[in-house]
Amino acid sequence: MQHSVPDLSDKSLLKNQTYINGKWVNAKSGKTFEVYDPASGKLIGTMPEMDKEDTQEAIKAAAAALPELKKTTARQRSKWLRKWYDLMMENAEDLAKLITWENGKPIADAKGEVNYAANFFEWFSEEAPRAYGDTILPSIPGNRVFTIKEPIGVAGLITPWNFPAAMITRKIGPALAAGCTVVAKSPGETPFTAAALAELAHRAGIPPGVVNIVTSLENTAEVGETITSSEIVKKVSFTGSTRVGKLLMKQSSDTLKKLSFELGGNAPFIVFDDADMDTAVNGAIASKFRSSGQTCVCANRIYVQKGIYDSFAKALTEKVNSFKVGGGYSEGVTHGPLIHDRAVSKVDAHVQDAIQQGGKVLTGGQKLPDLGSNFYQPTVIRDMTPSMDLAHEETFGPVAGLFPFDTEAEVVKQANDSEVGLAGYFFSKDLARCYRVAEALEVGMVGVNTGLISDPAAPFGGVKQSGFGREGSKYGIDEYMTIKMVTMGGLGQPLQGS
């Protein structure tokens, strides 16, 4: 049963099965789970509720396909990725409609995500033939030393719902470029986008078993543990919460897997009094309210120097008041729903906690039940303090909390007072300060005079309890490769006949 089906140009992109070993399959148990449109609350459709046995089948398929894939040239893998990229761009409208349907983000944002997601395939199609080794000068006369990079093997990929396309392509792109086969666990909230991408992989001619997608909702923990405990899977890449990342790391320890984790954030966003006001306000809008605040690099704590605090608060509030909240397909809508009612409850709890401790709501601060159970007003709160929940927890919603500060040293100390360190932002015209503060922030990524830092060419990842490893960029492919050193001895003899 399906409702409110978007008008897809290619209806074969909408699947209710998942893709393993080149075939569309159901769960062996026959069980399914339901997926709902977060804007309307209506049923989108069902997907297979896969379990340990299904996941093991996917892992076996990936293992069986690995020997042949390792024999392919990097140029061949490059061509597959390029074809997959081309197919994504040809079907960009339909992919965007699927993202909006199951994730809720406005259609303009969804189109932006499709372009961003496809660019990872384009980028890694270009990186695949450039995974170079080195020639090393040895310490021992007569020896020759060189290195070669090899695919690590079967990779298990676990992705979140907030970017249904980009989080999959950001992991599969480098894995395939390196020569790894993959088992990807798509998010239970947004599995249809991943299934559409699998259909395009099939059309791109990628061999059976190279790309496998496992779907589940209730059995997510079981599927995750099957991947992390498998002796066949040599690498796990996970994007999600720090709590779950710690659990997956423990589960992976028995088999000593290579890991890359992109975990929770609590991004500081600092506006110094010498900043360009319009640039800073627009940066805050882009960073804080993108996808209704549901990104891991969203500004979570906005620190504004006291000299411009009132004027910044006024300008930001005016911008937020111009937003239009509603269903993602509706004309003029700038911000959609949150993913589910639990997300709304967390956002509202943070707002109420701030109010109780003296925070002043400048705009928003309310649920929007007339629109649906998953909608919350974009909110600006001033007079925030470090004791409030929003200061030390990731809100993951459309709430901008403004903290005043006096000095550079004070704000850097507050910004770094967090267990996590994914992204940080600051705005200033002082060049020396730009270098000084960028180096002082304890985060993996810094945006200076910009609120948007995601780029396939740039390494994405954090420090502290935000995880380790990098995605995208020239470094991303290395997460799926091992370095083999070869020493050749006995090569120091004189030329024969001399």
Automatic annotation (TrEMBL):
It is an enzyme of class 1 (oxidoreductase). Its EC number is 1.2.1.16. Keywords: Oxidoreductase. One of its GO terms (biological process) is gamma-aminobutyric acid catabolic process. The keyword Transmembrane helix does not apply. The active site is at 262. Residues 24-486 form the Aldehyde dehydrogenase domain. InterPro entries: Ald_DH/histidinol_DH, Ald_DH_C, Ald_DH_CS_CYS, Ald_DH_CS_GLU, Ald_DH_N, Aldehyde_DH_dom, Aldehyde_DH_Superfamily, Succ_semiAld_DH. GO terms for molecular function: aldehyde dehydrogenase [NAD(P)+] activity; succinate-semialdehyde dehydrogenase (NAD+) activity. One of its GO terms (cellular component) is cytoplasm. Belongs to the aldehyde dehydrogenase family. This is Succinate-semialdehyde dehydrogenase. The gene is UGA2.
